[in-house]
Design brief:
single chain, about 160 residues, alpha+beta, Multidrug-efflux Transporter 1 Regulator Bmrr, Chain A, 9 strands, globular
Amino acid sequence: MEISIKKRDAFKAIGVRWQGTFQQAQAGEIKELMQQFRMRLDNLPETINKEFILGVSYDINETGFTYYLCCEVKGQYSLPEDMVEINVPELTYASYYHKPEENISETYTAVYKWIKEEGYRLDDQINLQHLEIYPSDYHPINDAPRLTINIPVKMI
């Protein structure tokens, strides 16, 4: 596995919010929401980087988590009525490009193992657990996952 450490500047994004259980996510609720969000990309403000859809996981606990599907924005924009704005601070991530032929669960397990083995720890100063970067042409219902997984880390 080619996992690397990458620093990403702070950014602002707009998109849709989902909150639910792991069972709901496993049943495809996030995939359906992503497909709906993809269909709206052309209606988002011009200032949006539409090449990538960001999936941002927050507040993971035993009952579920909050997930945002969003696009990065720069400058002034008008927030669509049924969307939210999120602000992600500058963070350092363990980063890995997950290929469609790989098993997503095994990939996440391997990245977490690598973090520990390489002398890093999870960045617990923020409740952001994962930043997933999907190409905007990824079809979540028909395609196997292809994304860059980013997990916030710090040196031990």
